[in-house]
Write a sequence for this structure.
């Protein structure tokens, strides 16, 4: 007759033994990794930005404004490009004139209110461009703070604004750590990049991705293991913006360095 | 110009879409709800805790709290880009957002104050309705007053001794229930700011508590101030009318603002003032000590750009001076008036420094935004979000108070 | 509850009832919790369809390829291969029905977006050959001397063309091709 102690020991051993191979299967199944929360969703849109490739031409900003009917001359934009110039004295100079809608037309840094800062070429240690857009976060703080349910996240991860329901309180604009939201000057409701939802929903790419001639912007589906964007995110050294806020942003950056705000 | 561009000056690097979106109306809103909460708490000190010296001011502050309620809605209506959709907060509230709590809390509070007022003034309503009923051939105005008072009685015409005792018990219960609701009304406003992790200045768990304490402070201060002004104004008006109607009570018979009432109330004022300033200084000290990533730009905003707003006006004039005024012995009515006015200034500046100060720096932590308050309203937008909009909000409660006083007189001894 | 004390409660209940009735009328019937839960998915689902139905403006080079095959091939084998047609010609929209023809943006500022020389070695921008627009033939359209569909070829000239003014073409650049679509539009093309 087996003793109680031996019975316990043996059953724990057997249970543990069975558990190990099962869990190993879990760990090494790439499909399981891809499906993360296991919610069975086939599509989750993600974006990839390569800051080494961006040249600051601003075609993306122009295309976005036209595609998404954001008034061209208004000083708001769904996406923009920032220029970073780090000089030998250790200072970082950053600007984004009109969100880079017209590119960067001068070497002078725009510091607001019509004032500019001259930078001599020989003083430049490094200089690069960083495109920015809505991160379509997995934990979007903007959606959390909407008091009426006018902004929400779709099953495929895009955060949208219901123009007919938004009351224009601006809480979502204040809640976004990335400064991506604004008030639409014509509709007077909250507005932001929505990954050109009308394009990606019919197999096209976003307007900014199509306009970029340098491959600095790419859109993909993280749930598709064969998507080239997914492959880059999984295998290369990517980073995200302001990770400490816990928003789990889904725009991944190659070449994101400490200067980027 | 996009919304916000007209009154925002941007310096160094700010994100392209960043403007000062929450302006003077968002400063007025917590200020007004703070007054509401404070006035109610003051009234409840009498009804619940039986602080008998406050009887004179209790009724006054209750009616004033009710007059402030619709005004608390006004800054929001003026701020919303789609004010006609404001009711959606009641229809499809998203309770993960602090603002959605507004619908429930505001309504609950409004119903409690309205109910409490009903019990306090029921005898007056019944007597007025019955009196008007006795008049034959009522004029149109008398007819309308009769309709109003009859409706306000809600059919409960019994003003016998037991019924009135029942009223008193109900008032006590409502006043007690109302205190946490009043605190919540303003506490959630603090939560609105304190929970925004994207804003380095706002994000702190202390924010709701700081807001509640300074709300109570402002409510008490406003009630003391208005009480003094109204009592003195009555004497002044009576003196002028007595020339025509000598049968009116003389200035000696009309009570002035009573010093012992003011002294008692200002003790509570000082207590809450101490609590508010302690928490604010605590927050500041912790920020400087821990020196997180945002500290560089926050330090620049707090100690350089906003130094005068914060240390001179809010802490100096709004806290330190009132301390000196109220704590030195021999408080007079005049000193109390000065002290309470300064306290109100301090509380207003606290709201300003939180709301505007929190938008004085960019989320990039590499740039600044300066708020230029629109003075002259040349467009609807600059009216609503400018000085004149704020003045409208500031003046409406007094107009409402004047109107409410006709239905629910604060000075007539109705018991 | 015979006591009059409960009267205000009845008034309150009346107000709540009014709000619920208003809610029934004003709130769209499909408003509710979506697949992302109450925190992230509280919305009106029909809005998603509304966003998907937005009109597409930019059609991409694949759309232009069918009628303008020669230009497509020319640019795709040139250093400007990755530039989308619509970057310089504007969105295709309903072209060729509406608009009948697209504009050609010959502004210097357009080319200067990439070709304004910026000495940024740590960025892709530093690798693009460029000029200073203030000193390099100011006032002249870039296309006077440079053919955008293949920058190795000479420009065909514009209003301010060096060629029409009688000046010789700059050395080292070959002649440029013509403008009309090589594959004429077939009737009934959707």
């Amino acid at each position: 007759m087996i003793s109680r102690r031996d019975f316990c020991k043996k059953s724990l051993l057997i249970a543990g033994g069975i558990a190990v191979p099962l869990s190993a299967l879990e760990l090494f199944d790439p499909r399981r990794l891809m499906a993360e929360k296991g919610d069975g969703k086939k599509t989750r849109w993600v974006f990839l930005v390569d800051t080494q490739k961006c040249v600051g031409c601003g075609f993306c900003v122009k295309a976005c404004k036209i595609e998404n009917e954001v008034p061209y001359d208004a000083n708001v934009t769904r996406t923009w490009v920032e220029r970073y110039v780090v000089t030998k004295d250790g200072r970082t100079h950053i600007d984004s004139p009109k969100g880079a809608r017209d590119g960067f037309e001068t070497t002078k840094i725009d510091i607001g209110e019509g004032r500019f800062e001259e930078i001599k070429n020989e003083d430049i240690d490094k200089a690069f461009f960083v495109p920015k857009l809505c991160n379509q976060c997995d934990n979007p703080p903007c959606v959390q703070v909407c008091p009426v349910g006018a902004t929400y996240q779709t099953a495929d991860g895009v955060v949208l604004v219901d123009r007919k329901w938004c009351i224009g309180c601006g809480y979502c604009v204040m809640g976004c750590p990335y400064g991506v939201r604004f008030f639409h000057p014509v509709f007077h409701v909250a507005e932001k990049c929505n990954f050109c939802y009308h394009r990606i929903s019919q197999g096209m790419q976003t307007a900014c991705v199509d306009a970029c001639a340098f491959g600095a912007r790419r859109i993909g589906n993280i749930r598709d293991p064969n998507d080239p964007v997914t492959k880059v995110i999984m295998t290369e050294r990517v980073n995200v913006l302001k990770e400490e806020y816990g928003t789990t942003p889904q725009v991944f950056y190659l070449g994101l360095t400490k200067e980027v705000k | 110009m996009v919304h916000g561009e007209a009154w925002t000056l941007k310096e160094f690097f700010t994100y392209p879409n960043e403007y000062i979106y929450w302006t003077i109306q968002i400063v007025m809103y917590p200020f007004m709800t703070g007054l509401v909460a404070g006035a109610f708490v003051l009234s409840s000190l009498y009804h619940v805790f039986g602080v008998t010296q406050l009887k004179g001011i209790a009724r006054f502050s209750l009616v004033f709290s009710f007059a402030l309620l619709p005004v608390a809605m006004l800054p929001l209506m003026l701020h919303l880009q789609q004010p006609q959709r404001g009711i959606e907060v009641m229809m499809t509230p998203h309770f993960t957002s602090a603002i959605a709590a507004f619908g429930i809390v505001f309504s609950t509070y409004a119903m409690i104050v309205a109910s409490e007022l009903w019990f306090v003034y029921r005898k007056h309503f019944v007597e007025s309705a019955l009196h008007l009923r006795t008049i034959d051939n009522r004029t149109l105005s008398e007819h309308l007053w009769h309709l109003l008072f009859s409706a306000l009685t809600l059919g409960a015409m019994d003003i016998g001794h037991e019924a009135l005792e029942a009223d008193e018990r109900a008032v006590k219960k409502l006043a007690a229930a109302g205190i946490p609701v009043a605190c919540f009304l303003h506490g959630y406003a603090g939560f609105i700011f304190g929970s925004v992790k994207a804003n380095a200045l706002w994000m702190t768990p202390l924010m709701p508590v700081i807001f509640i304490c300074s709300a109570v402070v402002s409510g008490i201060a406003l009630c003391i101030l208005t009480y003094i002004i109204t009592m003195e104004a009555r004497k002044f008006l009576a003196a002028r009318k007595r020339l025509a109607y000598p049968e009116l009570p003389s200035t000696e018979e009309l009570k002035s603002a009573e010093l012992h009432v003011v002294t008692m109330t200002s003790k509570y004022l000082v207590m809450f003032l101490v609590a508010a300033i302690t928490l604010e200084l605590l927050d500041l000290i912790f920020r400087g000590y821990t020196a997180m990533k945002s500290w560089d730009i926050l330090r620049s905003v707090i100690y350089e750009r906003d130094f005068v707003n914060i240390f001179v006006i809010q802490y100096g004039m709004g806290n330190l001076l009132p301390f000196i005024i109220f704590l030195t012995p021999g408080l007079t009515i005049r000193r109390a008036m000065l002290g309470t006015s300064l306290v109100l200034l301090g509380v207003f500046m606290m709201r300003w420094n939180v709301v505007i100060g929190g938008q004085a720096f960019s989320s990039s932590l590499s740039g600044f935004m300066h708020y230029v308050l629109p003075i002259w309203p040349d467009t609807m937008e600059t009216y609503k979000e400018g000085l004149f909009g704020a003045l409208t909000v500031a003046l409406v409660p007094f107009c409402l108070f004047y109107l409410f006083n006709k239905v629910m007189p604060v000075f007539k001894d109705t018991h | 509850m015979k006591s009059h004390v409960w009267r205000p409660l009845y008034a309150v209940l009346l107000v709540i009832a009014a709000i619920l009735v208003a809610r029934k009328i004003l709130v769209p019937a499909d408003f509710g919790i979506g697949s992302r839960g109450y925190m992230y998915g509280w919305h009106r689902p029909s809005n998603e369809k509304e966003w998907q139905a937005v009109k597409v403006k930019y059609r991409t080079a694949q759309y232009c390829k069918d009628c303008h095959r020669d230009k497509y091939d020319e640019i795709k084998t040139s250093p400007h291969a990755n530039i989308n047609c619509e970057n310089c010609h504007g969105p295709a929209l309903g072209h060729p029905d509406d608009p009948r023809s697209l504009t050609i943006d010959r502004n210097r500022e357009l080319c200067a977006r990439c070709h304004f020389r910026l000495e940024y070695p740590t960025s892709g921008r530093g690798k693009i050959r460029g000029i200073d627009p203030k000193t390099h033939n100011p006032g002249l359209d870039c296309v006077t001397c440079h053919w955008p569909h293949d920058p190795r070829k000479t420009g065909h000239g514009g209003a301010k063309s060096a060629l029409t003014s009688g000046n010789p073409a700059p050395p080292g650049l070959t002649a440029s091709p013509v403008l009309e679509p090589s594959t004429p539009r077939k009737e009934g093309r959707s």
Notes: Residues 4-28 of chain A form the longest helix (25 residues). Confidence is low (pLDDT under 50) at residues 23-30 of chain A. Chain A touches chain C through 56 residues (CB under 8 Å). The longest strand of chain A covers residues 124-132.
